[in-house]
Amino acid sequence: MKNVTEILTGKSNGAHVPLIAGPCSAESYEQLRTTVLELREISNLIAVRAGVWKPRTRPGSFEGIGEHALQWIQKIKEETGLKFAVEVANSWQTEAALRAGIDILWIGARTTVNPFYVQEIAEVLRGIDVPVMVKNPIHADLGLWIGGVERLRKVGIRRIVAVHRGFFTSGTSVFRNDPKWEIPVEFRTHMPDVPIVCDPSHISGKRDYIFEISQAALDLEMDGLMIESHYRPDQALSDAEQQVTPAELKEIMTKLVRREELP
Ligand code: PEP
Ligand code: MN
């Protein structure tokens, strides 16, 4: 299995199921800090995720705290020593995240669809050794996903992880986003050295499906999980229905089985 822990954190003692977890959005210093301190109890946690600029489909909903939240992340990083991942969607966000010392960047589904934006981000990253996660584009266009990875490689980014977050469905699936498992499987045949982390939160849309999607991802030998967690999910300002508490997430982790390692 490709070592997601090593790629994203530089540590070689890879977790059994590498987990990136944290709130959909950083909402306040207290919300982020409390959630992170509780997430620390999960032994396979390798990094914390937190959205700072939120790409909402329609205007009028919470669009993230913005740059100010990077200061909260810096403080909590200092306190806990944990690595943090933040979504960037254009050049100035990428510059701000790098200035703030964010450890891992990710390109979201609404950005991977646009080669201009991916290229703009890639230009800022030219010659910089930072790990980047590339989510699949909103629609099931494998070429755009591969193209996003290639654009980063061309500017010298070596530490790249793909994220499978499902694909837009016009109401034809019980899930918020259709997993279309065949797409990440095909991605792997084209880019066998790029690990794939599954994001069951954005596939599910509902917290009740997180376990089932996580187990399906492990059964397909995916290399890790990225799951949204909030200390008070029902009060979350974005993606409330799909977030789980850190305690619930810990429980989900104990139930997951890596079948390829069974005798
Ligand atoms: C997120 O991770 O909170 C997010 C906005 O995800 P996606 O780009 O997959 O919709
Ligand atoms: Mn979200």
UniProtKB/TrEMBL annotation:
Keywords: Transferase. The keyword Transferase applies. One of its GO terms (molecular function) is transferase activity. It comes from the Bacteria. Its EC number is 5.4.99.5. It is an enzyme of class 5 (isomerase). One of its GO terms (biological process) is chorismate metabolic process. This is chorismate mutase. The chain holds residues 1 to 263 of 365 of the full protein.
